[in-house]
Amino acid sequence: MIAVAALTYRSYEECRTAFEQMCADVAGLSGGVHHTSEGNGWVWRLRDPAGGALAVSSRAYERHSTCQAAYERFRALLAELGSAGVIAWEDTH
């Protein structure tokens, strides 16, 4: 697991639509690496233009550099998916 949604969605379709929009909008989204709330590790957050969290790392990292690399890989993945125009979903739902 790479990331988890920071929001709750009422349906699978709503979540999927939000993910597709996040992929399309990733260049305009901010975010970064932060200490965990316990202060003993690092997590990343991807934020919408208003500053609300959209996605967060699925786990805490021991090292800032490892967390930063994971954040950058996630953003690159979103950009790649967004540039494809259509995400090839394997509908198993």
Automatic annotation (TrEMBL):
InterPro entries: YegP-like_sf (IPR036913). It comes from the Bacteria. This is DUF1508 domain-containing protein. It comes from Streptomyces shenzhenensis. The lineage of its organism: Bacteria, Bacillati, Actinomycetota, Actinomycetes, Kitasatosporales.
